[in-house]
Amino acid sequence: MVLSAITSDSPACVCERTGPALRRAFTLVELLVVISIIALLGGLIGMALQGNGGNGGLTAAQDTVGGLLNFARSEAALTQGPARLIIYDTPTTPDESRYLTRVQVVVPDPTTPNNWITKGDIVDLPAGIYFVPPIPPAVPVPASVTTAWPTSNPTLCSTNLTPASMTVDSSTAPTVYLYVEYSLLGTLDGAAANGFLLALAHGVAHVPGNTTDTQPVRFTDPSDLRGLLVSQYGVETFLNDVTDFQ
Fold first, then answer.
1. Looking at the 3D structure of the chain, how many domains does it have?
2. Of 54, 34, 16, 56, which Cα lies nearest the Cα of 202?
3. Among 48, 119, 136, 227, which one is least packed by beta carbons within 10 Å?
4. Structure confidence at residue 152 (pLDDT)
5. Distance between CA 157 and CA 180 in Å, rounded?
């Protein structure tokens, strides 16, 4: 029996690899970034599906903020530098609707000192949902609001946030934000170094031009509260009831 030679032109012959010899594995940082983006997108979709206000709005906002915190932590590891989650804290502007509702992740601008650049999406919480600042607005409360926020109870508000005037995305003037900062190791720095609390609640914005109400936001129902408690190592715990804050 004569066996015919198999040449390199024969379909049965595989003479060389046409693709890369090895497939590069994902790094831990890349996986963290992907997981954070998925969590953030899930929260944004939840906000869109559940609509404005109500318990659905609070829960969706809580999920979205959790995704943003994970995203900030991943960005710190990815860029090997600090990353901040910032909350808009300037009520006396032409666009005061951003006050305590707009949140985003920023990192230092490598080309411009003292400028921070946004990473990912800028997020606005559903209408009627606000971050509760470290010192909630005080009374008097308008007649239309039957429940005053219990300012004497220090547990029903956010804690360990840093106020700062920052230039973001090369804005023409610095803006005041509340922020928490992650280090390149994924731990927390600054006022939040030992952990922090973000509280979310229903609120009512004052009507522009109403001189009888000087508070930009009134928090209306302290019994309906959501939040995120974050440890110094960046571990998140969701707080789903007012009793979880006490």
1. 1
2. 54
3. 48
4. 60
5. 15
